[in-house]
């Protein structure tokens, strides 16, 4: 492996061997999410589940700041910015662009940011600045029919 795939493999291997991974799952009633997404169809901008999940996650990280933290030496450092990284599978491998200050954006801006970053990732012209600085990563495998999985954290994210 070379390039992006090599870096991703190295980082995920590092994560698997150095971080404690815990997966908790619960079922939720997503009726309102489905309704909101359906209402947006055919409008100026269709809302995706990814954008809705980013918005919900960003709000939760703001409400529970200890989840938006990193380990620095022996100390937990709570991060001020809420920068949500979104895993994008491309022909060249996994790319994880970052939606900066996600907690301060409305759903329309989040949708536009996600679309722009995903297009750049698929085209292979995403800049290094657009893939660093994430404080929390979202990986959505729902389009593949996956109900639950155990992702690896992307160090130094919590």
Describe this structure in words.
- With 158 residues, this protein is an alpha+beta fold.
- The chain has a single domain, classed as 2-Layer Sandwich (Chloramphenicol Acetyltransferase).
- The protein has helices at residues 3-18, 31-40, 49-63, 107-123; strands at 69-72, 75-78, 84-86, 88-90, 93-95, 98-99, 136-138.
- It has a three-stranded mixed β-sheet with strand order 6-3-7, with helices on one face. A two-stranded antiparallel ribbon has the order 1-2. The chain has a two-stranded antiparallel sheet with strand order 4-5.
- Strand 4 and strand 5 form a beta hairpin.
- Helix 3 (49-63) crosses helix 4.
- It is globular, with a radius of gyration of 16 Å.
- The model has no long low-confidence stretch (mean pLDDT 87).
């Amino acid at each position: 492996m070379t390039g992006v795939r090599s870096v991703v493999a190295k980082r995920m291997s590092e994560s698997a061997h150095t971080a404690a991974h815990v997966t908790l799952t619960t079922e939720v009633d997503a009726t309102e999410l489905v309704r909101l997404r359906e209402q947006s169809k055919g409008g100026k901008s269709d809302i995706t589940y990814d954008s809705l999940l980013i918005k919900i996650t960003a709000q939760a990280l703001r409400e529970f700041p200890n989840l938006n933290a990193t380990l620095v030496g022996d100390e937990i450092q709570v991060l001020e910015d809420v920068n949500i990284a979104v895993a994008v599978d491309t022909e060249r491998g996994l790319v994880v662009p970052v939606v900066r200050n996600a907690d301060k954006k409305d759903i329309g801006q989040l949708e536009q940011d996600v679309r722009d970053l995903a297009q750049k990732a698929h085209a292979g012209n995403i800049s290094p600045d657009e893939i660093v600085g994430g404080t929390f990563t979202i990986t959505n495998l729902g389009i593949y029919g996956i109900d639950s999985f155990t992702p690896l954290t992307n160090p130094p994210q919590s």
